[in-house]
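Protocol step 4 of 6: structure prediction from sequence.
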Amino acid sequence: MNHLDQVRQVVLEKLKSHVQTENTIARALLAPDVFARVRVALWLERKPAKKQRQELEAEFAQLAGPFWGGLWLFAEPSLSNVDRRVLDDLWEEARPCADKIRIHESTRGRM
């Protein structure tokens, strides 16, 4: 198992914990970004307080270290329609992992 796989597993376990304890999370997606860093998308029932968002971001960043790519929150109006469509497509392509959680396995082509 390489370092990225280990980080993904740690982030996934924390994500499962959040989904089980926070009733505002409708669904969650674990996906790599274009640089093969770990990203998390959360579809929320309502927009989180700024402090809550910062705490989530800091918690995942601490767990993943240099492998952290960032957090997408669907309850935020700042998320563009394009980002929303891309993330919805990623959700559809992802494999179910746990209740309300999917993992997207991205493959990178060689040039």
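Step 5 (inspection) to follow. The mean pLDDT is 87.
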